[in-house]
Amino acid sequence: MAKPRQARFTTADLEGLPELDDESPALWPEGLPDVGRNLLTSAVRCFASNGFHATTTRDISGALGLSPAALYVYFPSKELVLFEIIRAGHQRALEVVTAPDIEAIEDVSEHLRALIAAYTEFHARHHVAARVCQYELAGLTGEHYEEILEIRHRTNAVFRDALARGVDDGTFAPVDVPRVSRAMLSLGIDLVRWYRRDGSDSPEQLGELNGDLALRMVVRHPE
């Protein structure tokens, strides 16, 4: 008889899992000491595997061989650890899609393709942190949630504006901009559920694929 899957992963269970291997450490503030950065990385792995509420401060600190009290030196609460992760992920995603080299692309089709590709690559490179950013929002306080929501609105506006520009000048078909831009965003976001760095597709390959798929959504067909 197959052994039933346990409801909760221990620190030992998470050690070395390839599905928890990503570039999340690159997201943390550079001014944060190494121990604080390592605590955020440990928390990402725990939150992504067990969820925010099922994760304890002992889980986060214990993975680094530290006592639970060590976490409070850098973060006054577990919720603030979650907030730092989600804020860093959302802010970096916004920076990626508003990078000068992308904003400088004048051709509306190539601009949209570049946006989708960059957004997709970001989520593939940081898929573990991005999973926490998307699925653990309910763990935030109301005030912190509102701050993240504002960043999300700004990010969404980048895609809506890019799509609307192509619709307005006739490059794209007259699609429903809010709905189609939401579908395009989902191309990048949804992969955090299944992506692994040891899989068959690199972040760049997925970016190129999704960029092409996005343009197919808005292509004008001969009348």
Automatic annotation (TrEMBL):
SUPFAM superfamilies: Homeodomain-like, Tetracyclin repressor-like, C-terminal domain. Residues 56-75 bind DNA. InterPro entries: DNA-bd_HTH_TetR-type_CS, Homeodomain-like_sf, HTH-type_TetR-like_transc_reg, HTH_TetR, KstR2_TetR_C, Tet_transcr_reg_TetR-rel_C_sf. It comes from Nocardioides conyzicola. It comes from the Bacteria. Keywords: DNA-binding. The keyword DNA-binding applies. The keyword DNA-binding applies. This is TetR/AcrR family transcriptional regulator. Residues 1-21 are annotated as: Disordered. Pfam families: TetR_C_24 (PF17932), TetR_N (PF00440). Residues 33-93 form the HTH tetR-type domain.
